[in-house]
Amino acid sequence: MHHTLLLFDIDGTILDAKGAGGKAWSRTAKQHFGDDFTIKQVQFAGNLDSIIYRQTAEHNNITDHHQHHEAFKSAYLKALHEELNQHDVKSHAGIDELIAQLNHLAQTGAPIMLGLLTGNYTEGAHLKLQAVGIDPAWFAISACGDEAQSRPDLTLLAMQKYESLIGVKANPKRIIVIGDTPKDVDCAKAHDCYAFAVATGPFSVEDLLKSGADTAVSDLSDHTPLFNIMDRITTA
């Protein structure tokens, strides 16, 4: 049986971490590479943590960064946990209700499946979700920033995981990528999926539509647009 697969970004889409990730990153980098380390001029939004690590290291002229990645990652995740506990991390409008409703539908036999498509390290993704009371186990599939080399590769990875789990190939026409940046839109379009954009991050509705989003909304307080699209692609 084919499912409609909903792939959610985390930062800017599900929640606002109030800068906890950036602070944890800066703390860890300074501890590992010195107080002069800077994370300026590197785009965090929509990027993979593994790529952010490489770009920030190269920007700071660290040539042997590959040797330090695992130690950095471990220390960063510890710092992230601490920062999340110190910040008033909030889920965005309508998200708690939407994910609870979708999870209930999935658990009661509806042909839908929840997934994560995020640039966060896998453990970092779980920490952020738990910080706003969302159980990572609600997402049957996850494609995270330590599992791929580029953002569009995450979509392909999610499709492969779907096939492994269900036993049938994922139908791109039944996949909705939900995110807040043009890079999330690119993830969808690279594999002919539906790009549902939400302007709860750094980009406006207009920005997201210009980037190629099929639909863009200001937030997810009204679930109707998403459910209408789900109905349409299920019966297509």
- Helix residue percentage: 40-55%
Instruction: Give the domain tally.
Output: 2
- CATH top level of the largest domain is Alpha Beta
Biggest sheet descriptor: 6 strands, parallel
**Bulk shape:** globular
Walk across the major sheet and give the strand order.
5-4-1-6-7-8
Intertermini distance? 15 Å
Number of helices: 9
The number of strands is: 8
The averaged pLDDT comes out at: 92
Radius of gyration: 18 Å
What is the CATH superfamily of the largest domain?
A: HAD superfamily/HAD-like
Stretches with pLDDT under 50, minimum 5 residues: none
Assess the beta-strand content as a share of residues. Answer: 5-15%
**What are the secondary-structure elements, in order, as H or E?**
EEHHHEHEHEHEHEHEH
Catalytic activity: 2-phosphoglycolate + H2O = glycolate + phosphate
InterPro entries: HAD-like_hydrolase_sf, HAD-like_sf, HAD_2, HAD_sf, PGP-like_dom2
Pathway: Organic acid metabolism; glycolate biosynthesis; glycolate from 2-phosphoglycolate: step 1/1
GO biological process, one term: DNA repair
